[in-house]
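Repro:
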Amino acid sequence: MSTALIVEDSLTDKELLALCLKDSGIDVRTATNAEEAFDQVKNNQFDIIILDIVLPDRSGFEICRELKEDEATKKVPVIICSTKGSDMDKFWGMKQGADAYLAKPINHEELIRAVRQLVD
């Protein structure tokens, strides 16, 4: 079974993402900010990380860049899910190392397809 970390400060979005992934047989852990995310990453192995951009303590872009620069996490796929859906936001997210970029509101089939492509 694959394990995903969802880093999302919106309770509604976090629950929707978690439900979608759990329905697809993926074990889910969550974090609401960068500090919690890095604690989770330090203490657990994840097959994929779903990351929001607008978080209370740090930008998801910064978190993604840090994850991709760290030897322990650089191979873990990162999907950015954000309301920031412009072409420039997507370009910048991919430049930070994201493996996929999905604009909110998230289409569940699109999310699962992206996860499967990166994890399987």
